[in-house]
Design brief:
The protein is of the alpha/beta class. It has helices spanning 3-16, 57-73, 89-96, 110-122, 136-145, 162-171, 185-188, 193-200, 210-227, 255-262, 312-324, 331-343, 353-360, 367-376, 397-414, and strands at 19-24, 27-32, 38-39, 42-43, 79-82, 102-106, 129-132, 150-155, 172-182, 231-241, 244-253, 265-270, 277-280, 299-305, 351-352, 381-384, 387-393. Strand 10 and strand 11 (244-253) form a beta hairpin. The protein binds S-adenosyl-L-homocysteine. Residues 51-52, 60, 84-87, 89-90, 106-109, 112, 135-136, 156-158 line the site of S-adenosyl-L-homocysteine.
């Protein structure tokens, strides 16, 4: 470390307290000493003067792959804005690992601003980084007035991204990508449904496949916000990992295209009695709540995105980038990418073996076994990254139920 950088970091200690240097991916990073911010054994990164969560490293690893895939397919000279940077970890990793041309880092907190400046110096990339200390919406509004737009805008807040979506849509280039995190899972998973209605203007649902509904609500929210600016959205890559939901979407200009996007809006119908679920492409109003399978009424979630959550060719490219990034190889990421790859070609809305066992009143069967049996029947079936007990299939619910019962019956006979 040069004497100048060392001096900068030493001066920061008076503002930020104890600092430590770590490595994440290919970058070096100065962060607050997290050992000082714990409750019992649990880390409380939000108590630190600048936020950094080591538990979300896998999500950042994956996102560096997604950004590189975008760069490879659409624009090798992509410029990116990491709108809520904290330490600058994302932006700096996209610059060094995903090889975007330039990044803009920003945080409203002055301590974060100082720290990300030091981190840019530490990685010797300061000539390709612009750093701001402004409210995120103010920054984007100033830049768009100066006709400075971005190929990629990454919105990674704690909690909901809703306050930043509007400005980001107006500032992203035609054909650019918005990458959006949501960690406000209680509203999106239907645990605090009134908060979901307030923030996303959508009904969430607390059920066995809520994770997929949550991603679809977030996607649908962005779609509706985009439509008023005559922008269309095209999902490239989505996932849910621990307490993080993340969507990467392409944004394209044009009223006709925006109308096409709105055709991918609709609702989830779910029958709590028999387990039937479907997506209805009806927006803004859903016409029937009747369950097509039993005399009950379905519960409704939405409005939400009913189209695909992935572009399977984009997912292919992400996997290709992963193969070449040997330093990121680990079991968790490999499994996640393999599962998402299959899932990107699957029908929507997963089932869970736990829920099937509850409805049928039998013991839980292994999702692996069930997927195998569905495939043996010539049907499509795969696991889902949303839930370890989940699977997706084009089989009718009657067929799924028959197979569950036959597995349970077979076990009983064998016993
Ligand atoms: N992207 C980071 C985490 C960011 S945490 C990572 O991957 O580690 C969210 C950050 O947003 C915090 O540092 C907070 O100071 C900043 N922030 C919150 N509201 C903001 C606003 N209105 N404008 C700019 N920054 C904001």
């Amino acid at each position: 470390m040069g004497a100048y950088v060392k001096n900068v970091i030493d001066n920061l200690r008076s503002v930020l307290g104890e600092l430590v240097e770590i490595r994440e991916g290919l970058i070096r990073l100065i962060i607050p000493n997290l050992a000082k911010y714990t409750q019992g054994k649990r880390l409380e990164p939000r108590w630190a003067p600048v936020f950094y969560n080591p538990l979300t490293t896998t999500s950042r690893d994956l996102d560096t792959l997604v950004v590189e895939a975008y760069r490879n397919i659409y624009n090798p000279k992509a410029r990116l804005c990491d709108l809520l940077s904290a330490t600058g970890v994302r932006g700096l990793r996209y610059l060094v690992e995903s090889r975007v041309e330039r990044v803009t880092l920003n945080d409203v907190d002055e301590r974060a601003y100082k720290l990300m400046k030091a981190n840019a110096l530490l990685n010797e990339v300061e000539d390709r980084v612009a750093i701001y200390n402004l409210d995120a919406n103010l920054l984007l509004n100033i830049l768009v007035r100066k006709r400075q737009r971005f190929d990629i805008i990454d919105i990674d807040p704690f909690g909901t991204p809703v306050p930043f979506i509007d400005s980001a849509l107006r500032t992203v280039k035609d054909g650019g990508m918005l990458s959006v995190t949501a960690t406000d899972l209680a509203p999106l998973l239907g645990v605090k449904s009134s908060a979901c209605l307030r923030k996303y203007q959508a009904l969430s649902m607390n059920t066995s496949f809520s994770r997929e509904i949550a991603v679809r609500i977030l996607m649908g929210y962005v779609c509706r916000q985009a439509a008023k600016y005559e922008l269309a959205i095209i999902p490239a890559f989505s996932y849910s990992l621990s307490h993080v939901i993340r969507i990467h979407i392409l944004v394209k200009r044009g009223a006709t295209r925006a109308n096409e996007s709105l055709k991918r809006m609709g609702y989830v119908r779910y029958c709590r009695n028999c387990g039937y679920r479907d997506l209805v492409e009806e927006y803004p109003i859903v016409s029937s709540k009747a369950c097509p399978r039993c005399p009950h009424e379905t519960s409704i979630a939405g409005p939400l995105w009913v189209g695909s959550l992935w572009d399977s060719e984009f997912v292919d490219e992400v996997r290709q980038v992963y193969r070449e990034r040997v330093y990121l190889h680990n079991k968790c990421l490999s499994n996640l990418l393999r599962t998402i790859y299959r899932e990107s070609r699957a029908p929507p809305l997963y089932y869970s073996t736990k829920e099937l066992s509850r409805i049928l009143g039998v013991r839980e069967v292994s999702p692996k076994e069930l997927v195998k049996r569905l495939r043996n029947r010539g049907l499509f079936a795969c696991r889902t990254h949303f839930d370890t007990k989940g699977f997706k299939t084009n089989a009718a619910l009657d067929t799924i139920n028959d197979l569950v019962l036959s597995i349970v019956e077979g076990d009983r006979r064998a016993a």
